[in-house]
Amino acid sequence: MKLVPITQVDRRVIEDFTCLFPKYEKHQQQLKKDHEEIDEYLKEKALKNHLNNLVRTHLLLNETENKVIGFFSLFNDSCFISNKKEKSLKFKQFEINRGEEITDLPAIHLHKFAIHQSYQGKSFGGMKFSDYLLSCVFDTVVAVTTLSGCMLIILEATDNAFAYYQHRGFKVLNKKVEIHCL
Asked: I want to staple 34 with a disulfide (CB 3.0 to 4.6 A). Which of 91, 117, 152, 158 is the partner?
């Protein structure tokens, strides 16, 4: 496996990516729509956004099969934390200490994160592909924080992904946004 920027991969390899399940139940139509949006983003928007410095997309490749296992896209952001939320975010020895002049906390936004449908739920060497890719996200964010201030990773999760992120230390900020303190 190899993690590379989207600019280093042939477009044909990207076109073969899909996170869509082979079948969706009637109650999963929103999930299907979310997965279609993720596929469309990678195939139609990710490279353009990368080249325009709006986002950075990285692909995890299976080099032997020349296949995208998964991908993530990151961009710089900020997150306003109200006094009410500030009290609830004191966990893992993380405490928000902001002065009067700071209204937003620096963050990295995990814009997109997906695993190819044939790798979903599967493991290698005792680790799920999704967990390995998320560890790559954390490694990338840590590298960025050495160059730029950053306190949080924020993301918007699909309904079926909330439990995945919560199990890995993310906290729900509101119905759509989760955060992880660095």
From this structure: 158
Distance CA 83, CA 161 (A): 27
pLDDT tens for each residue of 1-43: 999 999 999 999 999 999 999 898 888 898 999 999 999 999 9
Q: Which two tokens stand for residue 104?
A: 């937003």
Query: Would you state the torsion angle of the CA atoms of residues 105, 106, 111, 116, taken in this order, to the nearest 10 degrees?
Result: -110
Residue pair 99/134 in contact (Cβ under 8 Å)? The answer is: no
Cα gap 173→180, rounded to integer Å = 10
For residue 38, give the DSSP letter: H
| Chain centre distance of CA 39 | 14
User: pTM of the predicted model, to two decimals?
Assistant: 0.85
CA neighbor of 22 nearest in space, from 32, 14, 13, 12: 32
Element (H, E) at 1: none
pLDDT tens digits, one per residue of 121-132: 999 999 999 999
Return the exposure string of 141-150: e unless at least 16 CB atoms fall within 10 Å of the residue's CB, then b: beeeeeeeeb
Strands (E), 35-176: 56-62, 67-79, 105-115, 123-124, 127-128, 152-156, 171-172
What's the DSSP call for residue 26?
A: G
